[in-house]
Amino acid sequence: MNLLFEIHLLFLLSAKKVSFVGASLYEYQPEQMHLSFGETVRDLVVTWTTNQRTNASICKYGRNAVESTKVNTESPRLFIKYIHRVTLKNLKENTCYKYYCGSDLGWSRKYWFCVPQKNENWSPSLAIYGDMGLTYAYSLPYLSDDVQNRMYNAVIHNGDFAYNLESEDGERGDLFMKQIENIAAYVPYMVSVGNHEAAYNFSHYRKRFAMPGESEGLYYSFNLGPVHFVAFSTEVYFYLQFGYEPYCNQYSWLENELRESNRPENRENRPWLITYGHRPMYCSNDNINECSIKENVIRTGDPNKDLLGLEELFYNYGVDVEIWSHEHSYERSWPLYNYTVLNGSLTEPYRNPRAPVHIITGAAGNIESQDSFSGDLPEWSAFRSQDFGYTRLKAVNKSHMYFEQFSVDKETVIDKFWISKDRVEPYFKNANQSYYSQSIDSISYSNSFSKQNLVCT
Ligand SMILES: *[C@@H]1O[C@H](CO)[C@@H](O)[C@H](O)[C@H]1NC(C)=O
Ligand SMILES: *[C@@H]1O[C@H](CO)[C@@H](O)[C@H](O)[C@H]1NC(C)=O
Ligand SMILES: *[C@@H]1O[C@H](CO)[C@@H](O)[C@H](O)[C@H]1NC(C)=O
Ligand SMILES: *[C@@H]1O[C@H](CO)[C@@H](O)[C@H](O)[C@H]1NC(C)=O
Ligand SMILES: *[C@@H]1O[C@H](CO)[C@@H](O)[C@H](O)[C@H]1NC(C)=O
Ligand SMILES: *[C@@H]1O[C@H](CO)[C@@H](O)[C@H](O)[C@H]1NC(C)=O
């Protein structure tokens, strides 16, 4: 690798200097390198940008020396700068690669990534957080250090980037994307969309990141070990000026997605169902809007606008954990449905929980600082902290998952808990019937989320 790399560099410096047409080398230099999972964990999408158009997008990669070259012959997409994408397919499982990308007009430096195994019998680790800015990104040095120590198989950034990606004609977004290279060029950086991405119909989010599926990263799912992750946009409930279409498309996708992931063969392989979206259903912060009202729009929908909420849907399909951000704090709930705590038991609330567990993790650090809490800990809330920091998840196996919250302020873990289930079964409304003996399609729902949703035809 090194030798090849140097040869390239020499070639670049000596041969290309003369043939340049106007623009300088720097204009073709790849920047903002980041990774994401493609359709499986064996497919990685590499994304980067150049100031000027180059005629090829190339990645060279291998275990030690360059073994493969992947070229995307489609033109890079012009979005302020030129955005390049190359998908590295059918990578070898449990293998670490080195890679660099660019074209003969300029190559990136060398990075690495490790490909996990595709099946469910291993224990993936992730870092999860939301609300990280370009400035005051207090968690970033700790996350970079963790990533370089190979602690994670992926990172989830649950909405609100840079503050904002589009600011100063996107220059702030460019700086942010360069800043997270320390993480995102080494492990898949999986994202969801937040309110700070709303400008220009979320286009900076949609163009800069490359998530699986066909929705430009607004909703998608991926498998990692025993977990099925489902990402979605909470912003479809708030930005109706962009139309009902994003809400309608997402709702029908979510229903279908959850039904599919509950098919016995799928749920048995991947019993853990984790959702992530930006704005929470529950929170106990003292801000005026989100946390004080019980009829939270994400939770129960908005009847005046004919929008269906998500709590009942997620509950009925046995979602295990719902991860949120938006509040600049950390908060963990007891198993919870419709403001009712449904502990597995009083002594072991998270063993066979009877409802989803909510985690709010939006304290990665940004210019808006922390959000404080109001009043005493509500009955549904188990732990909360204003410290800056991020969440770590280890999905140990099909019956046990471990979460912990790392506080950057205290440089230590301030909360940890296990969720476990004795059987590979969700806590359906009708969970006392044998779940698998029932056809998924025959499960009946209350009228509140019938499919006859007027705005979506
Ligand atoms: C890219 O290709 C076009 C047409 O083939 C050519 O005009 C242009 O000079 C090329 N640009 C670079 C940077 O090589
Ligand atoms: C905004 O983008 C979404 C797709 O992401 C599209 O469905 C919708 O129609 C767009 N809205 C407007 C007003 O362009
Ligand atoms: C939620 O609880 C309220 C009472 O607190 C009740 O009126 C409502 O029907 C419940 N909703 C569901 C979907 O169970
Ligand atoms: C749930 O479990 C926790 C921990 O044992 C306990 O403090 C809390 O009171 C329980 N809540 C209910 C409603 O049982
Ligand atoms: C799953 O992990 C838990 C916690 O480490 C362990 O106690 C349990 O035996 C494991 N189950 C299996 C089937 O390996
Ligand atoms: C199952 O739950 C329903 C509703 O809570 C209840 O009416 C029914 O008796 C339960 N069935 C069994 C077998 O426990």
TrEMBL record:
What reaction does this catalyse? a phosphate monoester + H2O = an alcohol + phosphate
**Xref: InterPro entries:** Calcineurin-like_PHP (IPR004843), Metallo-depent_PP-like (IPR029052), MPP_PAP (IPR041792), PAPs_C (IPR025733), PAPs_N (IPR015914), Purple_acid_Pase-like_N (IPR008963)
Provide the leader sequence positions.
1-23
**Could you tell me the superkingdom of the organism this chain comes from?**
Eukaryota
The record's SUPFAM superfamilies line, in alphabetical order, gives: Metallo-dependent phosphatases, Purple acid phosphatase, N-terminal domain
Annotated ranges, domain Calcineurin-like phosphoesterase: 128-330
Keyword terms, alphabetized: Glycoprotein, Hydrolase, Signal
Record Pfam families: Metallophos (PF00149), Metallophos_C (PF14008), Pur_ac_phosph_N (PF16656)
**Coiled coil location:** none
Where the record annotates domain Purple acid phosphatase N-terminal, the positions are 30-113
Keyword Plastid listed? The answer is: no
Q: What is its EC number?
A: 3.1.3.2
Purple acid phosphatase C-terminal domain ranges (all copies): 355-416
Which GO molecular function entries does the Swiss-Prot or TrEMBL record give?
Answer: acid phosphatase activity; metal ion binding
Q: Which family does it belong to?
A: Belongs to the metallophosphoesterase superfamily. Purple acid phosphatase family.
What name has this protein been given in UniProt?
Purple acid phosphatase
